[in-house]
Write a structure and sequence with these properties.
By secondary structure, this protein is mainly alpha-helical. It has helices at about 15-20, 25, 30-45, 55-70, 85-95, 110-145, 165-190, 210-215, 225-230, 235-260, 285-310, 325-350, 355-360, 365-375, 380-400, 405-410, 420-425, 425-430, 440-455; strands at about 150-155, 160-165, 265-270, 350. Helix 3 (about 30-45) packs across helix 8 (about 210-215) and helix 10 (about 235-260) runs antiparallel to helix 11 (about 285-310). The longest helix is centred in the first third of the chain and has 37 residues, at about 110-145. It starts with 14 loop residues before the first helix and ends with a helix.
Length: about 450
Amino acid sequence: MAQLWGGRFTKETDKLVYNFNASISFDQKFYRQDIRGSIAHVKMLEKQGILTEEEREQIIAGLEGILRDVENGTLEITSEYEDIHSFVEANLIDRIGDAGKKLHTGRSRNDQVALDMKLYTRDEVEAIDELVKELLVVINRIMKENVHTYMPGFTHLQKAQPLTLAHHFGAYFEMFRRDRGRLQDIHERMNWCPLGSGALAGTTYPLDRAYTAELLDFAGPTNNSMDSVSDRDYLIELLSALSTIMMHLSRFCEEIITWNTNEYRFVEIDDAYSTGSSIMPQKKNPDIAELVRGKTGRVYGALVSILTTMKGLPLAYNKDMQEDKELTFDAIDTVKGCLALFTGMIDTMKFRNEVMEASAKNGFTNATDAADYLVVKGVPFRDAHGIIGRLVLYCIDKDCALDDLTVEEFKQFSEVFDQDIYEAISMETCVEKRMTIGAPGSAVMEQVIAANDAYLAR
């Protein structure tokens, strides 16, 4: 078909070149945003006296008809058109005639695609933010139910000190809360309207860009037309934020995969989020957690790709920028799918509380508290540290926990030990005496959970 830009050219574009240049296969995702932007543009043109009221009504009716027909399946977006803008404009002209040819007055495909991408991205930022919030609701619910569920905390993948499942999940609550903050920052920074910037230098038509921005729920028009058509910072920020979300999901998945092993048995993943083996009948594999972990690299790749694409581009618009779409669409779809599946997985996951508590006891996670017990009794900390280290070696040889020793055995290492050592190193004491904000003690955890409730209610 004839191109919208064909007047300058005397030869048909080579078919291979046309296909290489075309973006309709992926930018058709923009059809709602493209039509919404065009309707706002037409309303502004009529307000400024550039179109008549009759032309405005004709064009808007035609655009709404195209949207309706695409939505109900009677109008198909096909590769006959170079891009979604060509599809909308060509069909509009077919339907309403010469009035449709006035749609593009005062704008370029450069500011049009910049608008469409911003509108689409803004919608997706809001959708992803809602999915992260739904995940936070589930995490907070699990925290409420497990304030007294004792488990080992780890450093270097070694059992370190006892804490609670609520405290462990609370760490992820903080990560995903920061993710929401990043999404909201991106939304605020990107929410300026590029339409009316033209190809790069604005237009001689008396456009009211502030009115167009208002119709499209932007904070206002962008201030520099060159930057407006060449800015992809908001996509780089979004892909960076999505990469961070995926990193957090991947870390969480790694722990769940470990907790699901026969050696740990901390959790049981629901059948709906597991698969079996084609050859080993006993297997129940954490496939969803593994896939989320694996797809993290895919989202990282999108970020690196757009950074690499943008790094050498002079002002203003360059066709290279067309490469922003497919990778961004894929990253958005990947993150949305991972968030939804991960939320469902942990929402249905069962926790083996007794196994977790036994693991904390058998891993000497109360060794630090045993040393603190000696310090309170007047033993210098460095001496106390050495005494408990020798006690741990003794327990390893006997294959028992500190809690299993008799008072007489304790006294072999220091006469300071007495009957009160058992209360001092119990899981409950080790956790509950940690009462500073941010620690796992139940009283401060209840304060944190209440703050989480208030945050989620906003």
